[in-house]
Design goal:
Length: 418
């Protein structure tokens, strides 16, 4: 039973020296560990990716852009209060909230909250030649440790996007063991990032360069994009003994109709679909469940954590479900679908869309490692390929986590395990 999987079975020793604080100077010169369908592991470089992907693959990445989500305020007493933007509440739409002028409300984490008893916090700065004073006011607590925070500023014509760019800092992961530096404004963004909203980078995409993108086209590999704004929940550790006790974080994503149509054609034609990063994986694998739900009359546009493992929500044909989603979008004249997913991908998951994964090396006992294990062994059996890969990487000097090296993963053929 999936819910009985013990997270301790996905532990490994990750020395601090294996986690680089900065990326390589040239992104695509990082190492690429290739795990082949026959289970053999090979050492390559990321620059070789276009030649290693299946011919005519449909490659999908996440075009989200990391925002300067960390904002520091100081009280008159000198106490430092850090506000970490999580997701917009009013306006709740990401585009509208960054276009907002003079006021918006966000769900936030607040550092040193006990020092913020009452009253607003203020900070003054310049946006171009315009002086701006930003105020932050606590509205009240939300689920978990989050707070509802109202932001207001006194300069007309200044958007919240401009405010965040001027005041905030890029929220690099805590395991890098350092403060944000100016270089992170570029290093912690993919070269194809467009849509502002993430508080963490889809790090598998950090290795791409313009020359890799050009080489993909030369190899007749098309690249499309989804948008999933990565939340702080991506760093949420699994604290329960079994994964059944872990509440999976919910993330909002957007997918355009032409991509849904291309996915249907690719699956019909047996054309491989490759996903860059676990956020893209979660989005693509959520789409059939949304289509099946719409077919049942469920228009909530929310994929539940355990839907893939429950008979009532998992018994459907993948292509028919995607066609149901496509037809619903067409009837509603929707060019873009916006939905949310809390999908849990772990051993026992049925992979419906993604056939190849480009990803980084993940933390021990993480849900991302569960996803990798599931992908490598979709038919069950020997589920230790992830451990062979990670042991090889540790012994061979690979660099781990956000600014580390990459993997190109194929599912292991079951006959190769016997």
């Amino acid at each position: 039973m999936v819910k009985e999987i013990k997270i301790k079975d996905f532990d490994y020793n990750l020395p601090a020296e294996k986690i680089p604080a900065h990326p390589l100077a040239v992104r695509d010169e990082c190492r690429l560990l290739l795990s082949r369908p026959d289970g053999i592991v090979a050492d390559r470089t990321f620059r070789e990716l276009p030649a290693l992907l299946p011919p005519s693959a449909l490659l999908v990445g996440n075009d989200t852009r990391v925002i300067n989500a960390r904002m520091a305020f100081h009280k008159a007493t000198g106490s430092r209060i850090e506000i970490f933007l999580l997701e917009p509440m009013s306006p709740s739409d990401y585009v509208l909230t960054f276009q907002a002028e003079q006021r918006c409300v966000w769900k936030c984490l607040v550092g040193n909250l006990k020092r913020w008893k009452e009253g607003p916090l203020s900070i003054s700065f310049m946006v171009g030649e315009t002086p701006v004073t930003l105020n932050a006011r606590r509205i009240g607590p939300l689920d978990g440790n989050a707070q509802e925070i109202e932001f207001s500023w006194d300069a007309s014509g200044v958007s919240f996007a401009s405010v965040v760019d001027a005041v905030g800092k890029i929220p690099i992961p805590p395991y890098l063991g350092r403060d944000t530096e100016d270089c992170d404004s570029d290093d912690y963004q993919t070269v194809y990032s467009i849509v502002k909203g993430s508080v963490a980078a889809p790090t598998a995409g950090l290795h791409f360069t313009t020359r890799v993108l050009e080489d993909l086209r030369a190899h007749n590999i098309d690249m499309e994009y989804v948008t999933l704004h990565v939340g702080a929940g991506t760093f949420q550790p699994v604290k329960s003994e079994t994964i059944g006790g872990h509440p999976m974080h919910t993330e909002t994503f957007s997918v355009k109709l032409p991509l849904v149509e291309r996915l249907i054609r690719a699956l019909r034609d047996g054309r491989p679909v490759a996903a860059v990063g676990t956020t893209t994986v979660r989005t693509l694998e959520s789409l059939p469940y949304l289509g099946a739900a719409i077919g049942r009359g469920d228009l909530s546009l929310k994929v539940g954590q355990w839907w893939p493992y429950e008979e009532a929500t998992s018994c459907f044909d993948t292509i028919e479900a995607l066609e149901s989603l496509r037809d619903w979008m067409r009837r509603g004249n929707l060019d873009t679908l916006t939905a949310s997913t809390a999908i849990m991908i772990a051993p026992g998951f049925r992979w419906r869309v993604v056939g190849t994964v480009v990803t980084n090396f993940h933390q021990p006992q993480s849900t991302l490692l569960l996803l990798v294990s599931s992908f490598l062994n979709p038919e069950g059996g020997d589920c230790l390929q992830w451990r062979r890969i990670y042991s090889h990487a540790l012994e061979s000097g690979y660099r781990f986590l956000s600014y580390g090296d990459a993997c190109l993963l194929f599912p292991v053929n079951k006959e190769c395990q016997e």
